Amino acid sequence: MKRLRLGYTEVFFVVLIVTTALARLIDAWPASTHEIDALKALAATNGAARSFVASSLSADDSPTTKQVRQWRARVEAIEGTRVRGVVNASSRWARGVAQGPETGAQFR
After folding, report:
1. Alpha carbon distance 56, 43 (integer Å)
2. How far, in Å, CA of 75 to CA of 52, rounded?
3. E strand or H helix at 66
4. Contact (CB, 8 A) for 75 and 52
5. Per DSSP, which regions of 28-102 are E strands?
């Protein structure tokens, strides 16, 4: 009987396949209550994020780890939009205050 010899490339691909299979298996597991509570706490400060989490949880009784991770990204995007809007508004306000009435007077 001939012994199977694997090179470094073959070993790398076997490890890659096993890791991918494990990641998919972990994504398919139901999310823990700790993960769901952390998601609710993240969304607690924003009304839109809070309503998104509530509607998502009511639509799916036991979400998977992958779904909770996607919802967390969505909540962070909602929070980021709110924060980005405040930063943009404040920077516009600061620019308007910094410029005096003489700025642009030559173009009137």
Report:
1. 12
2. 8
3. helix 65-98
4. yes
5. none
**How long is the chain?**
108
Query: Cα separation of 38 and 44, whole Å?
Result: 10
What global pTM score does this model have?
A: 0.62
On whether the CB atoms of residues 31 and 65 are closer than 8 A, the answer is: yes
CA distances to 4, 84, 107 from 72, rounded to whole Å, are: 45, 18, 49
The number of beta carbons lying within 10 Å of the beta carbon of residue 49 is 23
CA 33, chain centre distance (Å): 19
CA atoms of 86 and 105, how far apart (whole Å): 29
Strands (DSSP E) found in the chain: none
For 3-25, what is the mean pLDDT? Answer: 93
CA-CA distance, 108 to 105, in Å (whole number)?
5
Residue with token string 């298996």: 25
Q: Which residue has the higher pLDDT, 2 or 49?
A: 49
Helix (H, G, I), strand (E, B) or coil at 30: strand
DSSP-assigned letter for residue 32: P
